[in-house]
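Summary for the steering committee. One of the milestones for this cycle was to obtain a three-dimensional model of the protein with zinc ion bound, which we needed before selecting residues for the alanine scan. The sequence and ligand used are listed below.
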Amino acid sequence: MLYNLAKEVMILKTQTITVRNKLVLKNSQQREPIDSTLKQFAFACNEILKVAKSENCWNAAKLQKLTYYDIRGITELKANHVCNAVRRVVNAKASTDKVKEFRPTSIALDIRTFIYKDGAVGITLVDKRHWFEWKLSFDQKRLLEGKRLSFATLSRTRNGQYFLNVAVEVECDRHYVSKDKAIGVDLGRRSIAATSTGESWDGEQLNKTRDRYAKVRANVQPKRSRSSRRLLRRLSGRERRFQQWVNHNISKSIVSAAKKDCAIISMEDLTNIRQSLNAKPRTKQERRKTNNWGFYMLRLFIHYKANIAGIPVVFVPPAYTSQTCSHCNHIHPEQGKSYRNGKRFVCGHCGADVDAYYNAARNIARLGVSINTPEAPKLFCSFAPQSALGAKP
Ligand SMILES: [Zn+2]
């Protein structure tokens, strides 16, 4: 287990991130060629899928040979549209067997069918190349500077807006980190995130905002009119963007703190957090908060930003991190009881009286260090049963 975990302490050379933003149409006449291209692309994918299934051929080059001229003959798609349609069918097979039908919601583009220049993008559609304004933030523009962009996806949302997603390879920094230093990050419910350096982001204000959205949703939901459906869609978009914005800020701050301290970042392995949190009897309201808070999003943000900054991230087993005293390693001796009481952790052994999230974050940091330095004495042996950490007895 220890060595499996230690494998994750790798520094990547590059990190792929997606730049996504809205396309601005000059006029509504520009919709027609986009929608027509989307429809024909989906049609082509479905035709290619039929051939692939009947011939049992999932090799891109062979499948292209089998379908290319037919598709060019019955659609107005350009050569590279067809190549990308073939690739999409093959990729869909690789990801899941159950693709039954492609819908006209997105089209794959490559270096020959889209070009980015000074805040505008040229996209080859069925009739010709069209130019659109692409609304990018300052940070997004900086990311794209001087990059060779080779893949993109144009998609249409349910409310008829068009978005362009472009994959960008970002060079990761080479950053010196000292092996025995880690910043532990505890992702919690009441406190969204707390670090072993004493920083924390309180969830209260954020939960209030979320509650407000939830209330509006509850009022709107029973009426299933068109206007209420539209309002719901707008709300969920706004709520998602708000959450994204908060998570971006938290992750930025954590990564820059690690960079300054030359420390690695240690987080809990949250693979099962939803299940375990939901297993405890809690109110419906509380469950909503946990499921919505976007732990995964925050963890993902921290992870990729750390990668770009050249900071290793380790994931530690979450067992006992909130139950153990980070000063003397003691756990409450009676089963089912804990020194932790809500926001506070008061150790019955050494008397330490600390913030519960800070205490957990310190434990996570110490576990992170012990994973990052397997040659050093294994700290976790003393503070949790091996079986709880998944190790073989
Ligand atoms: Zn203690």
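Key point for the committee: DSSP finds twelve helices and 15 strands in the chain.
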